[in-house]
Amino acid sequence: MVRGLDDKIFNTIIYIILGLCGLAAVLPILYVVSVSITPFGEVLRNGGFILFPREITFSAYRTLLTESNIPKAFQITVLITVIGTTVNLVLTGLMAYPLSRRNLPGRNFFLLMIVFTLLFSGGLIPTYLVVKSMGLLDSIWAMILPNAVWSFNVLIMKSFFEGLPEELFESARMDGAKEFRILLQIVAPLSVPVLLTVGLFYLVGHWNEFFQAIFYVTDRTLYPLQVVVREILMQSQQPLENAENMMPTQTMQMASVMIASLPVIVIYPFLQKHFTKGMLLGSIKG
Amino acid sequence: MEANHSLTPAPRIRPSPRSKLIMILTLLWRFKAFYIMLLPGVIYFIIFRYFPMYGVIIAFKDFAILDGITGSSWVNPWYKHFQDFYESPYFSQLLTNTLLISLYKLIWGTLPPIVLAVLLNECRVRWLKSIVQTLTYMPHFLSWVIIFGILLTLFSQNGGLINRWIVEAGGTSIPFLTSTDYFRSILVGSEVWQNLGWGAIIYLAAMAGIDPTLYEAAKVDGASRLRMIWHITLPGIRSIIVLLFVLKLGHLLDAGFDQIYILYNIQVYPVADIIDTWVYRTGLQQLNFSLASAVGLFKSVIGLILVLGANRVAKKWGEGIW
After folding, report:
1. What ipTM does this complex have?
2. Which domain holds residue B253?
3. Number of alpha helices (DSSP H) and beta strands (DSSP E) in chain B
4. d(Cα B134, Cα A123) in Å, to the nearest integer?
5. Which helix (H) or strand (E) holds B73?
6. Which positions, given as ranges, span the membrane (chain A) (predicted)?
7. Fewer Cβ close by (within 10 Å): the C or N end of chain A?
8. Long-range contacts formed by A180-188: CB under 8 A, 24+ apart
């Protein structure tokens, strides 16, 4: 059968291209891993290409974790991530729930207020001046408050709440429940999927925090992980005379890259479903 | 979205202003819990989103930190900072870089995800499909600092993998990351790498919505898989392709500040410096607040016009599609 053969060739080509796409996504990361744990002598011997090193050393990690700013920066990043995500979710949920009540007087005004910020912003400098005048410069709050609510996430959560069955609220209100109780005891448990999705996006945003630190923080002890890793990466931008000196730096650099990305890489596959859902929710809105 | 005007307003008994006020107040009182919930968020929006919009008036002033926003004196003529920017040698360079990088990213950011989505859609082996999806979505969650690190190990002039190969093969090393010839390709390439899989998600979802009977019918008619892709799959997602493309056009002035700031260096400013990076350096590094705000405002206003225009076009074309 000619068709069957055609189909087989067609399928094979598709599988090969897909496999290549998958490899292209993962190989650079594997390479970073292997550079970070391979003694630099072996890297040099193999012309730099090592995916499965014969000898493994964690000395770069040890040095980074004991003799650099990385542990301190790690703490800062964890702190920002935990406090920041909590603040984000509380504020976003508190905004989204009232706005999901279609009969709320002034609802359109508040919605317009949120949507307009998606279209227009005062820009970097005026925002900097606001953060400065609030006295937030050089504090961890400068990396949390200026982006405390993402307009988009309010809209995503709002449309999720709108989809909850009205009867639930009605019967709760009949029983005399206050709105705060309804939000906490009825809405919140039903909204775990959307809280997870929105929360994950906030969380990754905080973990990758870089720019608010660059803009608003000059105190080096408050630098988050990404800023410190970038400093380590910039150290070897200048050309070096001999290659032997350079290799440990590269090992160290890749180890710092791994420390900063490992949490995201490790948790991501388990939560992929929720990320994908968020992406689709968001694009339907937009 | 026209408002519904009824031609003949129903005659109504007008309540006295006093009782009307009381009615409104009782109505609002009934919703007080909701307003209390809204309060923290609204305060956030006023302080961090709307105060800066007021603050842009420093684009028309000579801002001095000691005098503050209100106290600083107005410039004469009011458009002085805009004129300075327009007449500076940066103007054409920044605008060219911004638009070119954006356009390259638009083109390269649209086609490959569509191809990947088609391939994933055609893939009949479940496990392969889900592995490829998981792997290709992942780079989206890596920060630009991490990607910068990856680019350094692969492309840097001393110690980068590619250059070590080139030198070993007897060539001379190429400064991929610091040369004006290669930098834009690095920008576009790393962006494609980061967002290839993530960009495919939405097309894949759109393909899932195509009526399966179309494929059945085509199979009966003896159409090949390739013909089915061309005549069923692609037309089926045409509207979403157009829609996303138009919406992205609205963000043409956002060439990717995060990425460029982290990857660029002084050698590549001629091809990589965009409006946003220049605003950052002029404002926060050289402390020329007013000029930087003016340029930022220039970008925000044109951006607003572009986005509104794009939304309009998208809506017009979108009619009948949704």
Report:
1. 0.89
2. 102-272
3. 18, 2
4. 36
5. strand B73-74
6. 12-33, 73-97, 109-128, 140-161, 182-204, 252-271
7. N
8. A180/B33, A180/B37, A183/A93, A183/A94, A183/A97, A183/B37, A187/A97, A187/A161, A188/A93
Domains and CATH numbers, chain A: 72-286 (1.10.3720.10)
In chain B, what residues touch A233 (CB-CB under 8 Å)? 145, 148-149, 152
Pairing between β-strand B61-62 and β-strand B73-74 as defined by DSSP bridges: antiparallel
Question: How many residues can be counted in chain A?
Answer: 286
Q: Is A276 on the interface with B (CB under 8 A)?
A: yes
Q: How many domains does chain B have?
A: 1
Residue burial B57-92, b: 16+ Cβ < 10 Å; e: rest:
bbbbbbbeeeeebeebeebeeeebbbeebeeeebbe
Closest residue of A to B125, CA-based?
A: A15
One-letter amino acid at A45 equals: R
**Domain containing B133 — which CATH number?**
1.10.3720.10
Q: Which residue has the tokens 């990404």?
A: A226
Under-70 pLDDT residues of chain A: 1-3, 44-51, 236-248, 282-286
Question: Nearest chain A Cα to B177, which residue?
Answer: A237
Amino acid occupying residue A84: G
Q: Domain for residue B33, yes or no? A: no
- Whole-Å CA distances, A95 to A91, A180, A278, A284, B130: 6, 12, 18, 20, 36
Residue B18: pLDDT over 60 = yes
Three-state DSSP class for residue B74: strand
Q: Which residues contact B150 (CB under 8 A, 6 or more apart)?
A: A28, A29, A31, A32, A257
Residue whose structure tokens are 């005379």: A241
For residue B134, being part of any structural domain is answered with yes
Share of chain B above pLDDT 90, in %: 65
Length of chain B equals 322
Select from A94, A104, A128 the Cβ nearest to the Cβ of B284. Answer: A128
In angstroms, the separation between the Cα of residue A75 and the nearest Cα of chain B is 18
For tokens 């809204």, the residue is: B38
Q: How far is B5 from chain A (nearest CA, A)?
A: 18
Whether chain A has a CB inside 8 Å of the CB on B119: the answer is yes
